[in-house]
Amino acid sequence: MSNIRYEQMICTSSQKSIVSGMPGFGVRTKSSGISDADAEELFAKSGINYRLPMEMMITEEEIIADPDVEKNYPCLYTFRKVESMSGNTFYIIARTLYIGLDYGYFAEMDGARRAGTNYIAHLLVFSELPSFAAVASAVCGNYFMPSDTRCTPRNSEMRSLLTGEPVPLLPGSIEEVAPVVQQTREAVWMTIALLQAYKNRKMADGTPVRIIFKVNHRNIPLLLNHIAALPPKMRGELFFQANGLLSSGVPDGLEMVLLNEKNTTRTDDDYYITVDVLNEDVFRTNIEENYLFGRLVECGERGDTEMMKNIVSLFLNLDFSRNIDYEFIYKLLLLAVSEQELSILQIDLQTLRKILSVRLSADEEAKVLGKINRAVNNAFVFPAGKEWKTDEVSFALEAVALLREEAPERLVLSVDSCRSLTQLLFGEEGMLPKVLADVPQRLDGAIYMVGKVRDSLPQEEGIFRGLGASTEQEHWKAFLYLYYGTALGQNLDTVVRRIESSGIADKAGLAARLYPVEIYCGQWLNLLETNPVYAKCFGSVVSDYWVRCADTDSQWVIECLLGMNSVTANSFDANFFAEKYVRYLYEKPEKVDAGLIKRILQSDLNLRKSLRYSLERLLAVSEEIPLEDVDAKLMFTALRISKNYRYLMTLFSSWVKQVPDMEEVNRWIAAMAPGEDELAQILDMLWKQIPQNERKNYVLGVIDRIRLSKEAWERLQKRIADTELSKILMEENAVSHKLIRKANLFFKNMVKKK
Questions:
Q1: HSE, side-chain direction, 13 A CA sphere, residue 446
Q2: Residue 736 has what pLDDT?
Q3: What is the pTM of this model?
């Protein structure tokens, strides 16, 4: 242990102060490292005065009868920080000895013999925070003056401190003594009080953090020594005062007061962590009923110092922001310090998560995790001739998965256990589904372990023997990825064949997950083409993908169908895809491919007549072949396919025979934007084909939508072949007639809406 340097000073009522030169209470003497101003301030702020109620103050007669005052008035010990006006920070360790009589008694003078109030305070003054071991060493060692505490004029040491000229002091040093954890009842309850204060500080929820500890004064030096042996973070800056009287609480600047058996002042226990060990039954307030505290008491009773240390260390590493199962962590501690081994059946996932959440010391954690890993590995290894305990294996796999996910650095698996698991899963007994069931954690653990010894995997036949016993898609998917790796795509035929002969319910679903059509389309088509027997089982893999593609790329789907033999192609719903293709062409006529349509019509696809008819008409339009049966949909499609006005007029001549809707005709004319010759032909055809009782209004309704200059109208009238129509156009094209027609149309529409 190291030596810690200090300055020192004596405060008392003396014949002369080294600072003021005056008699009375003040700084009697000091070392040169403390200025006069700082000395006066230390005296005023240190709280070192020995306060007694009037009825307890000693008289001169009592001192003469028994000068050993200390046995009835235990020394006051103070450890605290003092900030001075000069900006300096001091830390003091002080002993205040009650001597009752003033300096005149010790100088054998007639005056200055006031009885009852005088004391001698010796302050060890540090510029930096001393260790608590130094505090304990100061209290327990021979550092304070006077060493002879008898209050008599014959005590030369006492006389020199109180009378005559003050003698300056020299700096000193404390040799720290290694503290020892105590096993006494008082020490245990001090530990509990400090742990409660530590937790309350961590919680920062307004619960008390300052301590009142009531104990016999003879035990205080031992208690301070015990505190020094506790972990530093548990104490913090534990400023305290011991053996004080007239104190109902903990003064500002202190964290703890130790009150002895002579204190009669009632304490404010509701506001502090209070422990009273003066009686057989320990009284305490603001200390929780904590399972670990109970175990500390038991340790004290049986003198188990080592376990006390373990419990304290465990408590200081807890995360108090979450709920804590104190009984569980104590059992975990016992596991760490005992030779007891674990069974894998004791390590369920909830228990393992709780274990991982507890912060043990490095040694304790290593022991616990060592036992967990041994339990896990032992679950996979059995002596020859013994049956596998599949429930233990299953639990172990769940533990492996959890450790792998949440604490991979804590998982230690042996090669033997990994190989044993591989043998179990792919052996002839067909244990894979029983061990893994449908629990994802078990599969994750198994994949990790088997992956560590891939060289121990059986050949392809053995892999499928193991998987063949399982009907779980996840088992197949995970182990096939592990076995084949990047070569999975090259083995589509083999894998699909094995899936087809398995007991899996949704065979197509598994195949689609392993071999997405968007990636393996060519291989799928080749498989179905060369193995038509698979079409019934796996055709939906391709069909479902085609359905998703049909809205955006139906042409590609049709081309795929045409590339297959008729038997395989017709195993799909060709009508569905052909209908999608027809809709696609009507939406994007510019995509019409006459060659592809001919291939469809010439193929053996079992298409409905209506679909064939639609395709034939689209083909005819694309090749500008005249048609008799024409509707509006085809007319507008033709406009986007052909720019040949003569052909379009041919189609129009067929369309007009159907007496098409006037609004559709108007839209078609607007989209076509015909020249004057074509427009004249259109009007003539309409006049000729529309029933006689309707044709005038029909044609005029068309004309009203056509915007031409006056000169263009005159030219158009000359191009009209039918003289009656030409005459009507001349009469009805006047502005007044158009306005009347538009007004009539407006009122007619209003009546319809009503």
A1: 30
A2: 46
A3: 0.61
C-alpha dihedral (338, 339, 341, 342), degrees to nearest 10: 0
Structure tokens that stand for 59 in this block: 């008289």
Question: Parallel, antiparallel, or unpaired: how do β-strands 240-242 and 256-259 relate?
Answer: parallel
d(CA 448, CA 3): 57
Among all chains, which residue has been given the structure tokens 């389309």?
A: 521
**What is the pLDDT, as a whole number, of residue 329?**
87
- pLDDT score at 177: 82
Which segments of 314-399 are extended strands (E)? Answer: none
112 and 103 Cβ atoms separated by less than 8 Å: yes
Estimate to the nearest angstrom the gap between the alpha carbon of 52 and the chain centroid: 58
**How far is residue 91 CA from its own chain's centroid?**
44
Query: Cα(642)–Cα(648) distance, rounded to whole angstroms?
Result: 8
Count the neighbouring beta carbons within 10 Å of the beta carbon of residue 533. 9
Q: Which helix (H) or strand (E) covers residue 39, if one does? A: helix 36-45
Could you tell me the two tokens for 475? 């088992």
**Cα–Cα distance between 212 and 275 in angstroms, integer?**
6
256, β-bridge pairs: 211, 240
Whole-Å CA distances, 603 to 320, 419, 542, 607: 77, 57, 20, 10
Question: Which of 172, 171, 155 lies closest to 163, judged by CA?
Answer: 155
Which amino acid, one-letter code, is at 267? T
Mean pLDDT of each 10-residue bin along the chain, 754 residues long: 89 96 96 96 95 90 93 95 94 97 90 87 97 94 94 94 96 88 90 96 93 96 94 93 92 96 93 96 95 94 90 90 88 84 85 84 88 92 69 93 93 94 90 93 96 92 94 96 94 94 94 93 88 85 88 88 87 90 91 93 93 94 93 92 91 93 92 89 91 88 82 85 85 57 52 51
Examine residue 626 and say whether the peptide bond preceding it is cis (omega within 30 degrees of 0): no
**Ramachandran area for residue 206 (φ above 0: left; ψ -120 to 50: alpha; else beta):** left
| Distances, alpha carbon 670 to alpha carbons 277, 703, 714, 732, in Å | 107, 11, 20, 21
Residue 451 has a CB neighbour count (10 Å cut-off) of 13
Which helix (H) or strand (E) segment is 118 a member of?
Answer: strand 118-126
- CA-to-CA separations, 338 to 542, 661, 720, in angstroms, rounded: 62, 97, 115
